[in-house]
Write a structure and sequence with these properties.
Shape: globular
CATH topology of the largest domain: Butyryl-CoA Dehydrogenase, subunit A, domain 3
Helix content: 40-55%
Bound molecules: flavin-adenine dinucleotide
Distance between the termini: 35 Å
Radius of gyration: 21 Å
Strand order of the largest sheet: 2-3-7-6
CATH superfamily of the largest domain: Butyryl-CoA Dehydrogenase, subunit A, domain 3
CATH architecture of the largest domain: Up-down Bundle
Number of helices: 12
Oligomer: single chain
Number of strands: 9
Order of helices and strands: HHHHHHEEEEEHEEHEEHHHH
CATH class of the largest domain: Mainly Alpha
Strand content: 5-15%
Length: 391
């Protein structure tokens, strides 16, 4: 566990207080209507929390990943859903670590001030799936520009974003036969305001309705023209920059799952302490106590791994193993807590006004996206344990 400094506790308290303005009814309504929780995102933005990772010299809070993790955890622990705004934290790293000074100066102060939104990253494709190095969306050089054409099966929050990170192929074939499969992909920071104003027909967005409230879409890039100045870092090395952000992404996502895990255990305990059947509180029965307790211990263990991963990340030390394990452990723990909570509520767990079924649907995603737990197991098996790679 990290030393829980007064600053970290203050940040936790600040986030908690902001979240009290968005009670269960709010999240229930946005979920029912599949509505983007704009008011919540605005509140967080105005409080500066979404600029946590932006250095102070650009107007951000200049905090570390540990602090960002605490913000994400508190949102989910309050019953909220941080998916509406988490990408701004996840994707920032690519711009911070690999963007040019000109890109940073052009965008970071405005993102920090809340006048510009970087909420979308456009990577996954239908055919390639988890095998990102075989994506086929192309970016072809044309004078001072690149022209992007292709289809992305998932790109969340693009309609709620002014900027998007788009990964496209600038060279090589997606046949996996190259010496370095990762070479040939380029990362673009696309200014969607310019696209919408001047070439709206090159960007087709098709909304995808999912089992929970997630502003996600299929995207068709139809000859979208972006200036060469939109390239992040070097042409051809974009996949490396994406990978570079994965540890932060996994740690933040683990934090969201941990927040959910605490929410589920607390709701389960509260209900078990109040509901009476057979003339006694249901929480008296060990058949009810034990699954909640089991899940709680899993959440606590994941919490520690998450803090360890964040500590290493903030110290600039390798943390791939810990970040991946934290994501895996946290997503499995929150799912165990979700099931225990649902079972504890009996039939009422299925009724929307109890909010359990909503959080149940939300927390299931952590096992699947942005990376599947199978892929995490493969990473730990091969990179940590030295077992042979299967793909
Ligand atoms: C709600 C939601 C929002 C999303 N938002 C975005 C977004 O904003 N931007 C973006 O780029 N992407 C986004 N994604 C995509 C997400 O990153 C992918 O779903 C994820 O990477 C998995 O890819 P896939 O769905 O194609 O699964 P597949 O790659 O088709 O995998 C299917 C199953 O097969 C398993 N599998 C495949 N290969 C192996 C193997 N070698 N060993 C073991 N198991 C294997 C997988 O683990 C999985 O269980 C989103 C997804 C969801 C669900």
């Amino acid at each position: 566990m990290p030393t829980l400094t007064a600053e970290l506790e203050q940040l936790r308290e600040k986030t908690r207080l902001l979240c009290t303005g968005f009670p269960d009814e709010y999240w229930r309504e946005t979920d029912r209507n599949r509505r983007y929780p704009q008011e919540f995102v605005d509140t967080l933005t105005e409080a500066g929390l979404l600029s946590a990772l932006i250095p102070a010299e650009y107007g951000g809070l200049g905090l570390g990943l540990t602090e960002a993790a605490v913000i994400m955890e508190e949102i989910n622990k309050s019953g909220g859903h941080s998916a509406a705004c988490h990408a701004q934290m996840y994707t920032m790293g690519a711009l911070l670590r690999h963007g040019s000074d000109a890109q940073k100066l052009a965008y970071l102060p405005q993102i920090a001030a809340g006048t510009l939104r970087l909420q979308a990253f456009s990577i996954t494709e239908d055919k390639a799936g988890s095998d990102t190095t075989s994506i086929e969306t192309e970016a072809i050089r044309d004078g001072d520009d690149f022209i992007i054409t292709g289809h992305k099966s998932w790109t969340s929050r693009i309609d709620e974003s002014d900027l998007a990170l788009v990964l496209a192929r600038t060279s090589g074939k997606p046949d996996g036969k190259g010496a370095d499969k990762t070479y040939g992909l380029t990362l673009f920071l696309v200014d969607l305001r310019q696209v919408r104003a001047e070439q709206a027909d090159t960007l087709k967005v098709v909304k995808v309705r999912t089992m929970f409230n997630y502003a996600t879409n299929q995207i068709f890039y139809q000859g979208m023209r972006v200036p060469a100045s939109a390239v992040i870092g070097d042409v051809g090395k974009g996949f490396r920059y994406v990978i570079d952000g994965w540890n932060a992404e996994r740690i933040l996502l683990a934090s969201e799952a941990i927040g959910d895990g605490y929410w589920f255990t607390q709701r389960g305990v509260d209900y078990a302490n109040s509901r009476e059947v057979f003339g006694r509180k249901i929480g008296t029965n060990q058949g009810v106590q034990f699954p909640i307790t089991d899940a709680y211990m899993k959440v606590r263990a994941a919490d520690m791994m998450r803090y360890e991963a964040a500590r290493l990340f903030d110290a600039g030390e390798p943390c791939g193993a810990e970040a991946n394990m934290a994501k895996h452990l946290a997503s499995e723990a929150s799912w165990a807590a979700a099931n225990a909570c649902l079972d504890t509520h009996g039939g009422y767990g299925f009724v929307d006004e109890y909010d359990v079924e909503r959080k149940f649907r939300e927390t299931r995603m952590f096992q699947v996206a942005p990376v599947n737990n199978n892929m995490i197991k493969s990473f730990v098996a091969t990179k940590v344990l030295g077992l042979p790679r299967s793909y």
